């Protein structure tokens, strides 16, 4: 997204009379990409909807603290990632699920065929992604599917570029193994 759109959003949300208009522009500009990120992390549509909404509620609450060190997009993604990771951890604890049980539950959801436009290849890729640790899945999504630069991903995840490159390399290697073994 361009710096001029970011600046327009910030100018609008920082004035009480135009705050709602600015927030509406923020949502129109970024909601779909935030939802896609969250959906790939949590798989289930209803959970992704809730977490996307939570992300924008937090953004609305804290936009006054936004310093402009990064783009609004990066800031929103950081909020969405944190919301998603927290949600997944709480879900595992609430249902006393081990990581394997949680992975199996999400794979069963994929098998049910309730994906937006899932064909067999997409479904197989989603299952392969579920086998990755959450951090590798996130890095893979941001690099491969969102086509972000490592520096942007580092800002979103608050991780070093070197660690991200290693996570991405391991994720790609695991995905290739899974996709070629059947």
From TrEMBL:
Residues 26-93 form the RNA polymerase sigma-70 region domain. It comes from Algoriphagus sediminis. NCBIfam families: sigma70-ECF. Signal peptide: none annotated. CDD domains: Sigma70_r4. This is RNA polymerase sigma factor. Keywords: DNA-binding, Sigma factor, Transcription, Transcription regulation. InterPro entries: RNA_pol_sigma-70-like, RNA_pol_sigma-70_dom, RNA_pol_sigma70_ECF_CS, RNA_pol_sigma70_r2, RNA_pol_sigma70_r4_t2, RNA_pol_sigma_r2, RNA_pol_sigma_r3/r4-like, WH-like_DNA-bd_sf. The keyword DNA-binding applies. Residues 123-175 form the RNA polymerase sigma factor 70 region 4 type domain.
């Amino acid at each position: 997204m361009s710096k001029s759109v970011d600046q327009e959003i910030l100018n609008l949300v920082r004035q009480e009379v135009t705050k709602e208009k600015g927030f509406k522009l923020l949502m129109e500009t970024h909601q779909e990409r935030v939802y896609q990120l969250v959906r790939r992390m949590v798989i289930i549509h209803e959970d992704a909807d809730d977490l996307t909404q939570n992300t924008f509620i937090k953004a609305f609450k804290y936009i006054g603290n936004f310093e402009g060190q990064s783009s609004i997009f990066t800031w929103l993604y950081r909020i969405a990632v944190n919301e998603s990771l927290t949600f997944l951890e709480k879900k595992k604890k609430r249902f006393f699920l081990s990581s394997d049980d949680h992975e199996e539950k999400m794979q069963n959801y994929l098998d049910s065929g309730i994906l937006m436009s899932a064909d067999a290849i997409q479904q197989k890729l989603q299952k392969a992604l579920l086998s990755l640790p959450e951090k590798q899945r996130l890095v893979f999504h941001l690099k491969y599917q969102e086509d972000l630069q490592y520096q942007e991903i580092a800002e979103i995840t608050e991780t070093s570029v070197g660690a991200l490159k290693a996570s991405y390399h391991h994720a790609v290697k695991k995905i290739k193994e899974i996709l070629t073994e059947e």
